[in-house]
Amino acid sequence: MQKHNIAIIGASGYTGVELIRLLHNHPAVNIKALGAHNQAGLEAAQVFHHLSVTKLPKLQSVETIDFSDIEIVFCCLPHATSQQIIKNLPPHLRIIDLSADFRLRDASIYKKWYGHTHIALELQQNAVYGLSEHYRNQIKHARLVANPGCYPTCALLPLIPLLANNLLNPDGLIIDAKSGISGAGRSVAQHLLYNEISEGFSPYNVNQHRHIGEIEQEINAFSNSLQNIIINFVPHLVPMRRGMICTIYAKLQNGVTFPQARDILTQRYEDEAFIHVLPANITPSTHQVRGSNHTTINIFQGSDANQIILIAAIDNLMKGASGQAVQNMNIMLGLSENTALEAIAMFP
Amino acid sequence: MQKHNIAIIGASGYTGVELIRLLHNHPAVNIKALGAHNQAGLEAAQVFHHLSVTKLPKLQSVETIDFSDIEIVFCCLPHATSQQIIKNLPPHLRIIDLSADFRLRDASIYKKWYGHTHIALELQQNAVYGLSEHYRNQIKHARLVANPGCYPTCALLPLIPLLANNLLNPDGLIIDAKSGISGAGRSVAQHLLYNEISEGFSPYNVNQHRHIGEIEQEINAFSNSLQNIIINFVPHLVPMRRGMICTIYAKLQNGVTFPQARDILTQRYEDEAFIHVLPANITPSTHQVRGSNHTTINIFQGSDANQIILIAAIDNLMKGASGQAVQNMNIMLGLSENTALEAIAMFP
Amino acid sequence: MQKHNIAIIGASGYTGVELIRLLHNHPAVNIKALGAHNQAGLEAAQVFHHLSVTKLPKLQSVETIDFSDIEIVFCCLPHATSQQIIKNLPPHLRIIDLSADFRLRDASIYKKWYGHTHIALELQQNAVYGLSEHYRNQIKHARLVANPGCYPTCALLPLIPLLANNLLNPDGLIIDAKSGISGAGRSVAQHLLYNEISEGFSPYNVNQHRHIGEIEQEINAFSNSLQNIIINFVPHLVPMRRGMICTIYAKLQNGVTFPQARDILTQRYEDEAFIHVLPANITPSTHQVRGSNHTTINIFQGSDANQIILIAAIDNLMKGASGQAVQNMNIMLGLSENTALEAIAMFP
Amino acid sequence: MQKHNIAIIGASGYTGVELIRLLHNHPAVNIKALGAHNQAGLEAAQVFHHLSVTKLPKLQSVETIDFSDIEIVFCCLPHATSQQIIKNLPPHLRIIDLSADFRLRDASIYKKWYGHTHIALELQQNAVYGLSEHYRNQIKHARLVANPGCYPTCALLPLIPLLANNLLNPDGLIIDAKSGISGAGRSVAQHLLYNEISEGFSPYNVNQHRHIGEIEQEINAFSNSLQNIIINFVPHLVPMRRGMICTIYAKLQNGVTFPQARDILTQRYEDEAFIHVLPANITPSTHQVRGSNHTTINIFQGSDANQIILIAAIDNLMKGASGQAVQNMNIMLGLSENTALEAIAMFP
After folding, report:
1. pLDDT digits (tens, 9 = 90+) for C36-80
2. Which ranges of A170-210 does DSSP label H, i.e. alpha helix?
3. Which residues of A touch C17 (CB under 8 A)?
């Protein structure tokens, strides 16, 4: 199989090392360069001991990477830094950016949530939002794919078919989200210590999380409603490494029945390799998807006639980050979408 | 200090052993008998190895317990079994029942949720719902206290002051609840194995959990609304031993402001030893209460004008079960309410 | 690539489902049948929810499996049951048995540790002990491979090169072993509940674990010493899902130096795909191997001249069970040894 | 009861906050001051959210503490810093130091393990090693108690009675130790992040841990052997918050029998409130002691005649640190030794 050279910038973080895990045996990919500013010069195995079992390029600063024969770059940098780096990448590169920098189409919304003016608006204009199942055609030809956030991926997948078919009441949308700790990355902070996290559970950034802007953008993009939809969003930290659940409370439009909603959801995803609407009454669980690119979804009836409860489960590092990034790369390269993503969940 | 003799029936489960932990050093209590049907004849230390460090009565069947000099019985049996046992207890005993058997005042509601006809309705009539802070006066003189469920305790404490003061819109009440695994008790079931639970997160009994009946009963009891309030309730299992969070989405009545709601909540609990409304923007977390009888609560603004988000944290075995049971015993005996409950959370 | 049909008997346990995970995408394998006595008739996805994302044969009882076009059988049954089933399998099948039934070459030793007389001694005679790196040639042509236990694999890999080269004093060999909980399988027992395991650590079967017989058999098989070597062995349960560490205390023969021992170890494994002697002072850790078939090993100096400390890390379900079973199948089929085992550890 | 004023210096760490947990309800203690250099001026509840439920002094720098009416100071600072601070404390204070600074009686040994010259040797001369059960009489009158390390406490308690009675062969002593993560304190380091620790197990500082000096000092102090005893010591990190197990491999002197050793151990501790030699074959486990000051111990036979295996379990923050510190304070003040330490383990 023809090998495409790729580079990973920001390889010393968790989404970076997850890309290494997925790509080091991808039959059509050759990992050509690993960028990591602060660890430049180190072997990858010095930064992640489990990498000592395989051969990888040394970590290097972005400036020293020879991009001439590289085709695709995965960018795993923090927001703000990401736009600075991507702005200066050679034009022949196709880029999959895992940061938030190119997800928000409206510059003022970006500034509202991220607190600074965007410095690469010209790139943002042509960026494609990388929710694979819903932007597949645009991703195929994109130069720059803005890989979605984990919470948005998990919340949007169950919502979009219902919104797009005008089944949902635009009012009262509530997303109660729960994430494993790897979502916080490898940043060294007291509140992320083992002793501060394990055996505890807590909400954080109550209704103020930056992913709200991204979720609302896409909800309104897919909604047929004229009304601007806003959400209530409370994320919580679960004492586990990987996994994410969104429990979504919504109301059906008057006249829409629960079976109709269920049918629309099932039909929309029945041909998708990674999205699984479960049989009635089987609850999504992160154990169903841990270590895999799969998403499990179900829909339940609420207490009053129109109320429904949507639940979705993903692995935040896979479908919520690096797995979807590889899926997007496969789309961009015209490969089978599940290449190197065939793994089912690791259980136990 | 005068010693009151007590017995614990169902001492081989987690709420039973939590009562032993709390009561073995209670200055006004003497643990006189421990009932455990299947383990009758064993030392407590054979059933729970950590009890080998202290002296306790042997486990025995209920029939063999001499209740003549016992004053208070804690009943930690499963529902249905509990009513059978309690029905036949000598009349001089005062009883704190930790099962669901005497919590529901309406026999038909009991049958709806628990699937069988109640066989001790004459007792249920005089049972007092043991949410300590809100039924204190009745508990004081009660013969039979129906100790609340963990989810109801966690959900009701933040809601009751707002309902009682007519601040909440009766529509659209959503309770998204998360519990540590000890809530499932010591029953030996595949889905409770370490390998099935750890590193995973999942909803269960979506909108069908038995505690819904109990929560709705108390919500309507305290509400000033003429309308029957119903809730949407989704519980989730968190891979941790103890702790519970309820994230509650509600709407204020038109004309009620967020500061008003916050004030009512703060004022109601400012003199309570165990209920703490946190400063603005500090989020409740189970680590704040683990191993203690405390509850932490906060209120947050939602995305649209009337929407609020209430969050409460308890230890499900303490304020959610055995801690509140001891608090109720203290009330019944006229003791200081926090006797033997002075512990702050164990952290780390 | 030519497809070999395989069957997994005992597919409802953890080693069975790990084989499914590894083999469902093995390019040269077709999973033809899944045996599971108690769950016969169920879909695999009903027994393990995460399997709903892929197509698999239904579970069936062994008697109903059509073995005519099956080439290899993986047997994941408990000991004693395993020998009964294997005894009656058609002679054309090649078998990889993950139980302890065919590991011990001496029938009296088998009876000593497993408490009953072996009923298939004729098969045991031709069974090959499946420690891949040290029995590769025999495995290639074996009809029946006795896949090693997890503790023996982890303890023997660092010891064998030193024993085979006569570097170790036969006295005073101590193996202090630590295992994740999946090693206990999916059996439903109180002591394996989440609440009994998490946040705790304990030794068990102190110097009485059944794997002692297996370890001593192989130690003496590879040792050049005339003396029968016995070990002290204490296993411990670690509150984690997967992973195993053996910390081994041994003494070098007089005159043997630490660098000599290190060199022998390094040289023996330098061409092995799955065995990695780490650079000096880097400690093995289960995170280096979780979800992979890799083993990491290091050797450290003890406090007195001859004392050494060997440490090895494996994933108990991979190199300690199903991973090594697939490695052995690859050897038997003449495939590249790491086919379908290319994964590096999943971290985080 | 008469109240003794105490101060805790280094109150923002885990041993400090554990002292707060134990002492805030101690009937004979009044927490008068909390020292914390970097957080001076903050409320304790800002540093540990779970402290918001109780009243405590503000954190302040040591220089600003008025020690005039304080009787006892607990010092929870890092080594080196501790000696600097204690050197300058007013002479009327009695001090319990939880650091390593005053544990080693030989200044050269201190320098060997801690890498710098001790600057308060005059104090070290009069320091008493605070292993409560074995230095009780000296502790009673000490001005400065050097509270033992967690590993030394756990290793020494089972060894001392056997050494003191000359039952152990001085050769070949091996201590394989396992600790929960709180032993590492609240220091913010990458290797202590939740994602780096959970679901993994690893040895560290193989045979190079600083506690070796302390263990060897006390072993030789209690041994009747003329020979200087050295140990092999490998500590491991267990993915749990609290708890410690030492698995100790030793040889009995020729002529000493296993029952003799067991008897000596049992007799030595039968009157101790916190040390429990378990019945034969019951294994110590951290769950037996979590959150309590108790120690459980057992002795097992090894594979050859003289070999024994000693196992001890403690809570590293309790008997391994703050619990023993309070026990020592109780001794110093002539109080019942278990005052404020009556808690049995918190299980589940």
Report:
1. 999 999 999 999 999 999 999 999 999 999 999 999 999 999 999
2. 194-197
3. 347
Q: Which of C221, C75, C220 is nearest to C143 (CA)?
A: C75
Which tokens hold the place of B286? 């189970």
The predicted-structure confidence for B166-198, as pLDDT tens digits, reads as follows 999 999 999 999 999 999 999 999 999 999 999
CB contact under 8 A, A239 and D194: yes
CA distance D218 to D200: 32
Q: Mark yes or no for CB contact D236/C302 under 8 Å.
A: no
Could you report the predicted ipTM of this complex, rounded to two decimals?
0.97
Is the Cβ–Cβ distance between B245 and B154 less than 8 Å? yes
A270: its two tokens: 């029945």
Listed in sequence order, the residues at least 6 apart from B125 whose beta carbon sits closer than 8 Å to its beta carbon are: none
pLDDT attached to residue D305: 81
Chains with at least 3 CB pairs less than 8 angstroms from chain D: A, B, C
Low-confidence residues of chain A, pLDDT below 50?
A: none
Q: Rounded to two decimals, what is the model's pTM? A: 0.98
pLDDT value at residue D1: 76
Nearest C-alpha in B relative to A243: B200
Q: Judge: A52–C278 Cβ closer than 8 Å, yes or no.
A: yes
**Contact of A329 with A72, CB cutoff 8 Å:** yes
What is the rounded average pLDDT for all residues in chain C?
Answer: 97
Nearest to C303 among D232, D238, D243 (CB): D232
* Sequential DSSP letters for C38-61: TTTTS-HHHHSGGGGGS--PPEE-
Which residues touch A131 (CB under 8 Å, ≥6 apart)? A148, A152, A153, A156, A157, A218, A324
Residue D154: active-site member: no
> Given an 8 Å threshold on Cβ–Cβ distance, is A207 in contact with B300?
yes
User: With pLDDT > 90 as the criterion, what percentage of chain C qualifies?
Assistant: 98
- The whole-number pLDDT of residue A2 equals 86
Distance from C-alpha of C161 to C-alpha of C165, rounded to nearest angstrom: 6
Q: What's CA B297's distance to the chain center, in Å?
A: 16
Upstream peptide bond of B90 is cis (omega within 30 degrees of 0): no
D19, with CB counted inside 10 A (0-12, 13-18, 19+), is: buried
- Which residue is listed with tokens 């890092």? D78
Is the Cβ–Cβ distance between B70 and B33 less than 8 Å? Answer: yes
Nearest CA in chain D to A237: D194
| Average pLDDT of chain B to the nearest whole number | 97
Selecting from D184, D190, D195 the residue whose C-beta is nearest the C-beta of A182 gives D195
